[in-house]
Specification:
The chain is mostly beta strands and about 140 residues long. It is about 0% helix and about 40% strand. The strands form 3 sheets. A 5-stranded antiparallel beta sheet has the order 1-2-9-4-7, with no helix packed on it.
């Protein structure tokens, strides 16, 4: 077993900062060192910061722990808050990050597998301007 605690003061810049426009730091909580292992990251996005669009060859689970954020696909944008969990299916074009006005932290859970950061940007420039309101 392994016990870790999510802590922003233990976070560092992403390995490839170009994939994260804005200010983003990550804490590697668990490395996926073999097939079947799970990678766990704590990711903090300042307001307006997010990922570039990308896909994964396996499902990704995102759990919001602080602030408000967005998880978006080509056809849908979801406002997430602490306690919300989003499952992004394998192969789905998506991006995620803080809203324009709120920083956000999420945990990312993903089995070992490739990610493709060389996808079209599609509606990425629309950001969250058309984000539907959600009751608190």
């Amino acid at each position: 077993m392994k016990l870790v605690r999510i802590a922003k003061d233990q976070a560092a810049a992403p390995k490839v900062p170009e994939w994260f426009p804005g200010t983003v730091v990550q804490q590697r909580l668990n490395e996926a060192e073999h097939d079947g292992a799970v990678e766990v990251l704590g990711v903090w996005f300042e307001a307006g910061s997010r990922t570039l669009p990308h896909t994964h060859e396996i499902d990704q689970v995102l759990q919001c722990t602080e602030g408000e954020g967005i998880v978006a696909t080509e056809t849908e944008k979801i406002l997430i808050r602490p306690g919300d969990v989003v499952v992004v299916p394998a192969g789905v074009w998506h991006w995620h990050g803080g809203t324009r006005d709120s920083a956000m932290c999420h945990l990312s859970f993903k089995a070992k597998g490739a990610s493709n950061w060389e996808v079209e940007r599609r509606n990425w420039d629309a950001y969250g301007d058309d984000l539907p309101e959600r009751p608190r």
